[in-house]
Design a protein that fits this description.
By secondary structure, the chain is α+β, with helices and mostly antiparallel strands. The protein has 3 helices and 14 strands. It has 2 domains: 48 residues; 246 residues, monomeric porin ompg (Porin). A 12-stranded antiparallel barrel has the order 1-2-3-5-7-8-9-10-11-12-13-14.
Length: 312
Amino acid sequence: MKKLALTKRTMSTCLLVLTVSLIFPGAVFAQEETQEEQGVSKEETEKYKEVKKAARKEKVAENAEADKTGNDPRVFMNKWTPFYRTTELENGLTQQDLTAFGTFAFSPVMGMFYELPLAQYRDFSDIPGVPEGTDSIGMGDVDLKFLYRPKGLDFHYGKDGKKSGSWLFGTDFVLPTGTTDDGITGEAFLFAPIVGVVVDMPAHGFFAMLNLYYFDVYKKDSAPKTSRYVGRWFYMQPLTPPGEWWGALYLMPELQPVYDFETEDFSYWIGLEFGKGFAPGRIGYIKPGWGISNSEATDRSFTFEVGFRWMF
């Protein structure tokens, strides 16, 4: 009897499984099919991700290289920009500089920015207590900046990820190479780490925020101690669609917040650069600037710069 009952139970179980299979034929193989579908989907997803990733990398390069003004710090190219700048300080000192500025590209993601002083003139006549006609002529200090854009930190945002952004890291070296007569040189070797970010903006523009902290590595006893934060925040907006020379008309306001940790002085400087292309890779510009919330005698009151940029 027990054997017969076991046989009936087994048969009942088989009939139940068979009935369920006939009523729901897809249920029996659902797990296997799902696993197969998941396997195919995973392969397709990985392939799609790789294609999308490559497309985004190309988009970063395209968005950056669309800038025909030579102002985008993400784009490392060989260029040379001689400029003349006059600066008036709050204490009455007037300084005029002729400088050779340029960029040397080590690779598409790394480059050097250099400022080589050609001549510098300082007029101390308007400083209270200084005799009329007191001035000095010489050369200023060399400034070398090195910037690196890690591709792995490039990012995207906006609709369909069409906008791109990049992080920048680097160093700045201010070398006391100027003549020492009449206080032309700073008599100090300054160093600053650089952390920055650049993002695309509408209508082919971009916004860059570079942050530097300067401190003295070496200085003479007569030189003041340096501990200073300097921000360089600028927004470049083309005024015409991108093109060759005809598309390089732009406006670029810049804000520089400056905080001196030694004197606890906080000030701003705002500049307005207006540039125009005259030929492919040939840009001329003017840049007036004004000091805001100045409290120290050495803060900038007014600056005016004019220069010409050659891109190779």
